[in-house]
Amino acid sequence: MSELESVEKPVEFPETEYVEDGQNKLIIKCKYCTSKILDKKSAKYITQEKDLPLMQQDKNKEGEVQSERINQFYHVENMYTFENIGFTHTVANHKYLSCADCDAGPVGYYDMETKHSYVALSRVEHC
User: How many angstroms from the chain centroid is the CA of residue 85?
Assistant: First the structure.
């Protein structure tokens, strides 16, 4: 599956249990160790399509990186907004984001060109 990049799309912000006024309504934590990643109201909700490697790869598929298409993200403009995040080595002008405490990830990605980070809603805990 090839990686699909797209520009941020204007979106009407849904008032859901996770998003309020276009931002994360709740604290964002790691699903595995519950370490805090982002404070409330610190990231903007956006929709864009991006393929991210699966957090748990199938051991039977040697050398093949399995991925899934994700379309809901929290956009973080400044890397210092994070409470706790790790960055991988550069892969195709991106760095993947992981929990700095337990290394679970990728929970999102960092774009080397824009210097912005994107955290997948489906890969984190909302508390």
Answer: 10
96: nearest Cα among 84, 81, 107: 107
Distance (Å) of CA 54 to CA 13, 64, 68, 108 = 27, 11, 6, 11
Q: Amino acid letter at 65?
A: V
**Span 69-87, pLDDT tens digits:** 999 999 999 999 999 999 9
**DSSP output for 12-59:** PPP--SSEETTEE-S-EEETTT--EEE-TT-SEEEEEEEEEE-SS--T
Does the pLDDT at position 98 exceed 70? yes
d(CA 127, CA 113): 31
Instruction: Dump pLDDT digits (tens) for 11-40.
Output: 444 557 899 999 999 999 999 999 999 999
Residue written as token pair 């610190």: 42
The per-residue DSSP string of 88-110 comes to: EEEETTEEEEE-TTT----SEEE
The Cα–Cα gap between 19 and 5 comes to 23
